[in-house]
């Protein structure tokens, strides 16, 4: 496209706005090259004053700059635009969201003369993408209050937020909401519902959604397989995996991730290895790190640590935290400190910042009663300035999320919570005595 | 008319809201400066009492205190009633203590309020105070006093007060007082005594007595007495018969009769009997108990402190909160940002059996569905 | 009892004050700022007494829960009732003590004692404070299980620690339990204690004590109790009829028949104002029937039946029928005994296992096996389950009459119905069978019982001896094999010596050694096989993996994120493009 453009310039054909839009969107999609090329195109557009005069070109420029991370320039264009339409506003907001400048985005959003579903969606989706799920849900609520009608893209974003914090109550509400809309048969909404239900641990509903869908896509199949596998419904996951093949879908890497996860959940070592072989040989799918992760996990669970280690050593890519995590967890389970240390040496070479693994290693030492070792690791963590990430647990009650950290006493109902915990901890330790005399 | 002239909003609106029991909307109107008249307040007090919403009750009371009606004895009595229905006797008492004059109703409402809120002792104390003010208790007073006795397990006092009615105040007890005294026995679980009391009444007991006894038997779970009282009730008042009543299961043993010999010999045939299969079944069914695995606590602290540390892990706090906030047997879903530690995994497994719920924990790696003391991950995680 | 309300209140408040609950009267002294009494913070010790919730706590969802549990109780699903009660503790709707009491009282009624104690322990731990009903249920249980020490301990705890007083019922339960277990002295002590606590003297309790003294043939004490009660009630005559049957028994004991009958005519004469119920009548009925006045008893029984007007006036109950059936038996009028027993349905009385057992026992010990069996056959119709006592009585009588098949049949049915005969009962049957030469039959009962009943050495020796007596030495070896496999601890040195001796005569003494060796070999084989299988599985997959990994058929490092995030990742990528599509579509439209 660039070449073509250069030819156009040399042949002195006046490029029109369509040309620029096409070019700029090309730059935006390839930020690495776009960052050098984009501004020069801008310069050219500037010369013929298309950037101010033509809304679409201006908008495309904003999009381009925000995608290559030059949000300041994007704003400059926005401010100098002769005329702005809703799309320009939305694109600008999107730019802020994409670059994590939530405050600016919201400010701009508030200034917008007229907001449509897309404006709201841009904001909500931006929060979801940056992991600010609660904010996203908050804005969804604002949207409802403002009386704006969400479209299916909004719903997909919101469902993703729901899935992440696991607020099943809200998820169920959304499902009911969707069923009354014209996009109720939208395949992507259904896929999101499946994902949401699975990630709320509510497999039965996920399956219902899947089974009643008018038509399934590859993503639907993958979602249900991975969802079942993660929820330890291994047999079901494998059943859907086979069903998917029968239905004429081509398996992809994700399908295999699901199937392999299912195998590792139930300890089906043989089955898992066969699947792995079939994936590379028959389906010619390049195994990715998560597939290796599954294999390592499989071996680790079967207690075959040496085999697992061999896989790690033979992997064509750098092993990640998940892979080492499985391996170290297995070491802890079998109390194999020697192997754990070998693994740690290996990790230090490849990934010196993985604090997660330090915690595991110190756990291993502690499990085998080696306090000295555990202390050493802890000190090392301190030296590296690493802190154990605090554990946080969430629970949803009546569509409200409650958050707890260990030893938490800040909750308003703390006293009753602790009373309940004390009763529970007594009851779970209680061994029923035999009351034979009273039979 | 006064309200209408000052604010320019017709009073009818507020009155309409009050008579429909729309307390929240009525308060909003008053926030806007609309003034309520006596009838509105009366309706609002009643509505707040019925809905048991203490916060709204307080707001309405605030407006009442700022109104010209604040000195109205009848309305103030309604405030007492409202607070006692809302379960806040502290507020009722505050109002009562600040009353310039009180009539019999005020005292009755207070004593009865204490009684129905399970604070019978305070009710009785108030009655003693009432006597010192020179007021002479009447028949209704004694009904509230008996109600207070019933809610304070004050059985002896109940009988003493009942006797004093006639001897000290010359009030001859009516049926309702006898029923009240039956309540003193019945509510505090003295069922056999209550039955004996009915049988010793100086007149033939009416259906009311048997119905009351039936209800007390139901409260305390005495199925046989309940049935007996019900039979007597129905024999006196056939309209009380319940259709499709589940028949009472026959008892395994008749503990009320043992004018029998031979009873002791039964044991001889059973003991000593050692049954291997039952031993085995019992051993197999013996539920697992949880033993804290303090290896998961990394701080170098003493054993007890470690067990305490485990006890307050975030997932356990979340579960405990989930339990006290939801109905029995409802599934709980917890989401954790890290992996569940081995000790919690073990504990939650057993918790799921003890609390009779499915507990679903999503950690950063996968899901754990805990049910009946087992986890879907089969302890691999 | 107390003279003034103040006095009564003082005693009650003294109990509550132990829990540091501010007594309201003292609060009144500083009237300006009245504070509602707050329960003290939960005591650390879960068994420390707490104030139980009053009946007014039973409202809203907690009342719904109560009613649901009552429904389960009526459906006799006690397991679910108890479980649901427990599970409700772990919920936003905590059961009240009343609901717990309802479940426990149903468990008591159905003889589920262990379950009751388990639930009680649980609610104590959960801090659901017991009320007087709870204590009474527990006392009844201990008394029924003959755990008088525990009952007394529980009573002491109630008196010393509970924030409320025991009820008259508490004393009735305890005193009756003590009397039934021949502890009359202790019972009288408790009765005296009761009266010092301000309780009115209770005729029912005196009647229990008199029953105890009659049983001890201590007529003077019966009279003493009667006089004491009369004096304490301050009346010329005790109007509660429950006393008089036992007073009559006292006179009969002394041989003072005329005085006894004088009491009888006074209590049940034309113009008597005595309050009589089924229990009072039964005492009198028994006094007559057991003291040579059976005809008079029959007359009274007729009168009772005539006066009986269910549900308003209850004059007969199961006990009345048993007294009369017993009386007929004593007169050897067995047909009439059975007849009257079978007629109790007329008055809506239902027999229980115990009453059947008594009559069956009578019949059996009077050579009326056929009648006893007929009675036994009728139990199913009346929905009464025979117990060990029923079966063993019938079995023993059959053995006595040499009806071996029938005896074996009763034993078999008993085991089939999951009743638990003990070793002695089993021994009696097997010995009789062997004696009659039915060794195979005996062996079949051995086979039936050996997986269940813990046998002793003699039982093993007996059956082995019998088998070798009919030349079935291989069966003996099989038994040894069974013991070694299932209960190796039972195979003592002495038993081994006995078996070797038994087999030696046949030249089979090596069999035992062989068996032992073979068992060890089997164990070793099984272990080896398991190890081998594991090794095989490992090897096969190792090869497959090594193969895969060495082929290096994979490309370079793909940069993909974590496993679980992946599905979502693809989704959100497409979501992003979706947003843009919509936007550009939007743009195109403009």
Class per helix and strand makeup of chain B: mainly alpha
Uncertain parts of chain B: 1-9, 255-271
Helix/strand structural class of chain A? mainly alpha
What's the helix-strand series of chain B?
HHHHHHHHHHHHHHHHHHHEHEEE
Number of strands of chain A: 2
Cα distance, first to last residue of chain B? Answer: 75 Å
Strand share of the residues of chain B? under 5%
Largest sheet of chain A: 2 strands, antiparallel
- Determine the most extensive contact between two protein chains: B-C, 92 and 103 residues
> Which quaternary structure do these chains form?
heterotrimer
Q: Based on DSSP secondary structure assignment, what is the total number of beta strands of chain B?
A: 4
Number of helices of chain B: 20
Mean pLDDT of chain B: 86
Adjacency order of strands in the biggest sheet of chain B: 1-2-3-4
Tell me the overall shape of chain B. Answer: extended
Distance between the termini of chain A: 89 Å
Descriptive account of the structure:
The complex is a heterotrimer of chains A (439), B (381) and C (590). Chain A is mainly alpha-helical. Chain A has helices at 2-10, 17-29, 31-47, 50-53, 55-67, 71-80, 86-98, 102-111, 117-129, 133-146, 152-165, 168-178, 187-199, 203-212, 218-230, 234-246, 253-266, 269-281, 289-301, 305-314, 321-334, 337-350, 355-367, 371-383, 414-429; strands at residues 392-397, 400-405. Chain A has 25 helices and two strands. The longest helix of chain A has 17 residues, at 31-47. Chain B is extended. With 381 residues, chain B is mainly α. Chain B has helices spanning 2-7, 11-19, 23-31, 38-51, 54-66, 73-85, 89-97, 104-116, 120-132, 139-150, 155-169, 175-187, 191-199, 207-220, 223-236, 265-268, 276-285, 303-311, 314-325, 342-355, and strands spanning 332-336, 359-362, 367-371, 374-375. The longest helix of chain B has 15 residues, at 155-169. Chain C has 29 helices and no strands. Chain C has helices at 5-17, 24-29, 60-74, 78-89, 97-109, 113-125, 132-144, 148-161, 168-180, 184-196, 203-215, 219-233, 244-253, 257-268, 278-289, 294-307, 318-330, 334-342, 353-364, 369-379, 388-400, 404-416, 423-435, 439-449, 457-469, 473-486, 493-504, 510-551, 566-589. In chain C, helix 11 packs antiparallel against helix 12 (219-233). Chain C is globular. Chains B and C meet through helix 7, helix 9, helix 11, helix 13 and helix 14 of B and helix 1, helix 2, helix 3, helix 4 and helix 5 of C. Strand 1 (392-397) of chain A pairs antiparallel with strand 1 (332-336) of chain B, so a sheet runs across the interface.
